[in-house]
Amino acid sequence: KQEVTQIPAALSVPEGENLVLNCSFTDSAIYNLQWFRQDPGKGLTSLLLIQSSQREQTSGRLNASLDKSSGRSTLYIAASQPGDSATYLCAVFVDSNYQLIWGAGTKLIIKP
Amino acid sequence: NAGVTQTPKFQVLKTGQSMTLQCAQDMNHEYMSWYRQDPGMGLRLIHYSVGAGITDQGEVPNGYNVSRSTTEDFPLRLLSAAPSQTSVYFCASSYSRVGGNTEAFFGQGTRLTVV
Q: CA-nearest residue of chain B to A39?
């Protein structure tokens, strides 16, 4: 059974720092991996989607990598800002039953 | 673009009551799904649909029903609410489940409390 783990559960860093969020999954048979942002009381916003054949995707200050063989993905945030404070979730799309399997998220706080 | 619209945003039910959570998307997406989010856990799939007239169960389907009469709408029905169904519910849609862009778009969520 596919399991997705995100460590740490919470992270607090000063503004301006570069940081890395981690996501690991137990079964490498994934179709893609997606990173989301969730603000308190709000819905989920897609940040980056990496297909299983890709190694990384970039959007602005965000860079996501994927290593299927080791079952890992990282989300790199450059020059962090207080507006980046949110919970970041990763999810893998499993072809066999058409669903996203989710990690529990990393709550990120950027201190001004 | 409206994207994925969920209603209501908040709801309080008494144990045993029934209700329907509404979900509509205007992106002509084939694939729609319902998830629940509980504290400290990842989102879990309740039911999903790969097109109008086709639905299937996800990981936690008990106590919920769905139907998909149109491409746009995918309501979730709670048959007899229980306190264990207190959660935040998200509806999602994507253009294609495989072979294409499966990027998922989510509604704002419905926060349901069962007392």
A: B108
